[in-house]
Structure formats: structure tokens, C-alpha cells
Design brief:
The complex is a heterodimer of chains A (about 250) and B (about 250). Chain A has nine helices and no strands. Chain A is mostly helical and about 250 residues long. Chain A has one domain (about 25-245). In chain A, helix 1 (about 1-15) crosses helix 6 (about 125-165). Chain A starts with a helix and ends with a helix. Chain B has a six-stranded mixed beta sheet, with helices on both faces. Chain B has a four-stranded antiparallel beta sheet with strand order 2-1-4-5, with helices on one face. Chain B is globular and about 55 Å long. Chain B starts with a strand and ends in a 7-residue tail after the last helix. The chains are: A mainly alpha (about 250), B alpha/beta (about 250). The interface between A and B is medium-sized, with 16 and 25 residues.
């Protein structure tokens, strides 16, 4: 029953979020600000994780394919497909759920317990729309860039690690990443990243917006935002994979 | 004028407000007083629509606020100014941005006009050279003044103040009280103040509503408090030893 209660409340919040904005110019400015806060400020962590992710995938693949019957370019191919299909969209989304999700929930939670959201309502401003809509647009717009960046950096990290430990040569690695490349995999990954961005921003905003109490509750909302966003991302990963790849 | 008719509000089947009926007059400082937990904050939040009431009516100049939908409420709320207990200033914005926030949203003023308006509001609350500061850089009194400036920037018809001088020293509290009173008179607005500060009551209380156990227990002017024989009101107002000397229990002056 509690699940349905939350689901209903979440849908009603979204209805309020997607109401007609009071003044488009103010929302535009806010969206630009959110692109910086949620998107550009995440470049560093995504880049760092992608390098190591690519490196580990390559070394693990090399370790598991130490068989003379298997071609060496398989390492590059496996690294490419793992990064493109799963890591750069889903793992990056899970990392964003941690970084951006907790940021959104704690920001809105603090605003709620310090009556800043009430202040917006009293001014006659649709607080849900003003605070949440720019975050949704900003992350849905920027997440594909982060995913593309993660793909490139991940593949580069794989090459750097693979060649430096002598697991694969540059020639074989490049041959592997070019071998039977399916461009649709990139599209599939980008579609997932947009959906995941929507999940992260809305689920985290839901938890932050309805925070009641004090500092303790803000912390709890932040944790719930990360956990619930991650679970929903994994669920939708399964659904989208079935829908887009089968 | 604001009219409240037979307002009832409960939380989880516990009645917090019971059959509250009252009027808040224009151009006057209308005070809601009562002990902690008596329901005065709930009443104030119910009046402005931050809490949905169980039954009853709230009318602003005859318009039934309780029956309005979200869009209609938004329209009428643009006539509201509210001073929250903690100020509720937006942390990420400077004093200037906090005050001009409403102007950005609801007016087509030029940058110069906005600057002029913000400057006027800051002068009204006696604040200078703070426009570039963030709320975290302000003292408690300065935060309250900034919040008042933000509340009046749109020339509101109604000003609601929730514990305007909580956490302030007596001198600053008196300054804030007098400021609210002056703004009420100068702008001719309906001001509703929720407080349990007796100094405020005696200083600026044109009309006083005493809430006890969620009910409208007593109503009158600050002068009438001295002649009232209401036991609960006297216990609340004349609780301290110093004030008891002004009026001993169960007596009228």
C-alpha cells in the first residue's frame, strides 16, 4: 500500500512539475545554472571512473581469454561492447544517482525544512516546477554528453591499461574496437542515459521536496534518494534492454 | 480584511484547531497569541493555504480562498507577503537577488527599476550596503529585515509574520515589531502576526486573538487585555514575575 501511496504522490508531483512555467526566462536561467551544477561539475568524476572502468574491463577480459584459440582482438571487442552497452550508461547513471541524486535531495530537503519552499508557494510561484523542472531538463540534456565522454575515455583507459601491462597490442586493440561495430549500440546507450537522467532527477527531487523535520530527515531523504534511484535505474535497465535490444 | 469562519483542522484524527471564527482588519497589526502547541502556527499556515483545512472558510476581501483551485490560489498569493520564523531566505541568492526574486517573476521592470525598488524596500527596513551579501553572512536581525523587505517588495495587501522576533534580543525584537507596525500603517495592509512574545503584544497589538487548546479563547485590543478577567489569558500574558507586578492575578487594572 505504501508503494502505491508514494507512486501516486510521485505522479502528482510530476503533474505539478510539468505545469506551464510562470516565466520562461527565469526557468531558462535556472536550467543553465543546473547544467553547470549537475552536468559540468560531474565531468571530473565520470572521467576518472571511466578510465579505471575501461582499464579493469580490458585487463579482466585479457585474463579470461588467455587461450591461443581465441583471437587477441577479442579483448578490444569485449571492452568496447561492455563499455558501450552497459558501463557508460548504467554504471555512469548509478554514479550520477549517488552524486547528483544526493545533491538534489539534500538541496531540496534543506529548502523544505527551512521553509524556503513554503516561501516560494506564498509568493505564488509553482515551487515544484521552478525547483525541479530545470534539474530534469538539465540532466536529460547533459547525460548523453557524459555517456559519450565516458565511452571515449573508457575505451582509451582500456587501451592504456591493456598495452601498458602487455595484455594486448595497440593494433589488435584498435582492430577489436572496430570489429563488427554496430552504431545502434551507441544510440541504445544514449536512450538509456536520458531515461536514467529522468529517473535520477525526479526520484531524488521527490524525496527532497517532501522532506519534513530537520537535519536528520534531510540526511535520510538523501540516502533514500540514492537507494531508490539506483533500484529504479536497474529495473528500467532491464526493461529498456528487453525493449531496445530484443 | 480576512475572515475566518468555523475553521477546523486535525492531524491524524487529533483536532488542533476547533471552530475558529475571527476577522483580521485592514491597516492593523492583528496578533495571534497563545502557548507553544496551542495551534497558532497551524492557524497562520492554514490561512495562507500551506496547510489544507478540514472544514470552514477563509475569505480574502470576500473571496473564498478555501474553494479556490491551485491557479486561483496562486493569483491571490501574489498579494501575500510572508515573514517566516527563520527568515526562509534563499541561501544561494544574495540579499539583492532575494528581494528582487518576485520582481523577476511577476513584473517586466527594467534592471534600473528593480534596483530602485529593492533600494526603497531596504531603506524602509533600515538596511544599507548589504545587497551583495548572502544570507549566511547576515545577523539574525538583518535576516529578518531582509525577509521583511522581500515580503513587501510587491506591495502586498496582506502581510503574515510567523514569530517575527524569535531568536532576537529584546532591543532588535522591538525594532522589528515597530518596523512591522510602521509598514502596516504606511502601506495600509492587513497584517497577521503569530507570536508568543508579550512585549510584541503590548507594543503593537491592535487586535489580539488568544488561541487556547486550538480554540478562539479571547479576542480584543491590547488595552482590553488589562481589564480582561479571562483566567487563561491572564495566566499566559502575565506569566512572569515582573509583569505580574503590573497586574496581579484575577484583577483588572
Amino acid at each position: 500500500m505504501t508503494l502505491f501511496h508514494h507512486l501516486g504522490k510521485y505522479v502528482l508531483l510530476l503533474k505539478k512539475v510539468f505545469a506551464k512555467p510562470e516565466k520562461a526566462r527565469v526557468y531558462y536561467k535556472q536550467t543553465i545554472r543546473e547544467i553547470e551544477t549537475l552536468g559540468i561539475n560531474s565531468i571530473g568524476i565520470i572521467a576518472m571512473i571511466s578510465v579505471f572502468m575501461g582499464a579493469v574491463i580490458t585487463i579482466q577480459t585479457a585474463y579470461n581469454t588467455e587461450n591461443p584459440l581465441l583471437p587477441t582482438y577479442l579483448i578490444g571487442l569485449a571492452a568496447r561492447d561492455s563499455i558501450l552497452l552497459e558501463f557508460s550508461s548504467t554504471i555512469v547513471a548509478l554514479i550520477l544517482a549517488g552524486k547528483v541524486g544526493s545533491n538534489i535531495a539534500s538541496e531540496l530537503g534543506t529548502m523544505s525544512v527551512t521553509e524556503q519552499i513554503d516561501a516560494l508557494e506564498i509568493m505564488g510561484i509553482n515551487s515544484a516546477s521552478y525547483l525541479i523542472l530545470p534539474k530534469i531538463i538539465a540532466l536529460m540534456f547533459f547525460a548523453p554528453f557524459l555517456t559519450l565522454m565516458s565511452m571515449i575515455i573508457g575505451i582509451f583507459g582500456g587501451w592504456a591499461a591493456g598495452t601498458s601491462v602487455g595484455a594486448v597490442t595497440t593494433t589488435y586493440y584498435i582492430h577489436g574496437i572496430q570489429y563488427e561495430f554496430i552504431p545502434y549500440y551507441v544510440t541504445y546507450s544514449l536512450i538509456k542515459s536520458v531515461v536514467f537522467a529522468f529517473i535520477i532527477t525526479t526520484v531524488s527531487s521527490y524525496h527532497g521536496y517532501f522532506t519534513k523535520g530537520g537535519a536528520l530527515e534531510v540526511g535520510r531523504s538523501s540516502t533514500k534518494a540514492v537507494v531508490h534511484s539506483s533500484v529504479v535505474i536497474l529495473l528500467f535497465n532491464l526493461i529498456l534492454t528487453q525493449l531496445l535490444l530484443s | 480584511m480576512i475572515e475566518v469562519n468555523t475553521l477546523n483542522k486535525s492531524f491524524n484524527c487529533v483536532w488542533v484547531l476547533k471552530d475558529i471564527t475571527t476577522r483580521f482588519s485592514r491597516g492593523k497589526a492583528n496578533l495571534i497569541i497563545g502557548r507553544s502547541g496551542s495551534g497558532k502556527s497551524v492557524l497562520l499556515k492554514s490561512i495562507v493555504g500551506l496547510l489544507e483545512i478540514d472544514s470552514g472558510e477563509i475569505l480574502f476581501e470576500g473571496q473564498n480562498f478555501t474553494r479556490m483551485n491551485f491557479a486561483e490560489r496562486k493569483k491571490i498569493r501574489r498579494k501575500f507577503g510572508m515573514l517566516f520564523q527563520g527568515g526562509a531566505l534563499f541561501d544561494s541568492l544574495t540579499v539583492y537577488e532575494n528581494i528582487s526574486f518576485n520582481l523577476d517573476f511577476f513584473t517586466s521592470m527594467t534592471k534600473k527599476e528593480k534596483q530602485k525598488r529593492v533600494k526603497y524596500c531596504l531603506e524602509l527596513v533600515n538596511l544599507k550596503n548589504v545587497t551583495h551579501l548572502y544570507p549566511s553572512e547576515l545577523s539574525g536581525g538583518m535576516k529578518k529585515r531582509t525577509a521583511i523587505a522581500r515580503a513587501i517588495v510587491m506591495n502586498p495587501s496582506y502581510l503574515f509574520c510567523d514569530e517575527p522576533n524569535s531568536g532576537l534580543d529584546p532591543e532588535t525584537a522591538t525594532i522589528i515589531d515597530n518596523l512591522i507596525k510602521r509598514i502596516t500603517l504606511e502601506l495600509g495592509i492587513t497584517t497577521v502576526i503569530n507570536t508568543h512574545d508579550i512585549n510584541s503584544v503590548l507594543e503593537i497589538g491592535d487586535n489580539v486573538l488568544f488561541i487556547h487548546e486550538g480554540q478562539n479563547w479571547w479576542e480584543g485590543t491590547k488595552e482590553e487585555i488589562f481589564t480582561s478577567g479571562n483566567e487563561e489569558l491572564n495566566d499566559f500574558v502575565f506569566a512572569t514575575e515582573i509583569i505580574k507586578r503590573i497586574k496581579p492575578p484575577n484583577t483588572s487594572i
